[in-house]
Write a structure and sequence with these properties.
The protein is α+β, with helices and mostly antiparallel strands. It contains four helices and three strands. It has a single domain, classed as Orthogonal Bundle (Arc Repressor Mutant, subunit A).
């Protein structure tokens, strides 16, 4: 999700390049879970004769990611005060 927060659209290939060592199956599984929760928008096109799938964060996905970061920040701040 962090990559989708700074890029409008990210292709499957771009994800693979950024997430070194991830398998196609593992990445597809993560993407599927995000899509089921309506955190991703999916666009499928053909470039020449090759299919290309791209992903963008939805408003719900952006909000969920921001909420997650806020919760992590709150947790870190509460632990640093002890």
């Amino acid at each position: 999700m962090s990559l989708l927060m700074v890029e409008d659209w990210v292709t499957f290939k771009q994800f693979k390049e950024q997430l070194e060592g991830i398998t196609d199956g593992n990445l597809a599984s993560h993407i599927s879970k995000l899509e089921k929760n309506d955190f991703l928008e999916v666009k499928k096109v053909f470039i020449g004769r090759k299919p290309q799938t791209s992903y963008a964060a939805t408003d719900a996905g952006r909000k969920a990611f921001k909420d997650h970061l806020d919760a992590l920040e709150e947790l870190l701040n509460s632990n640093s005060k002890k």
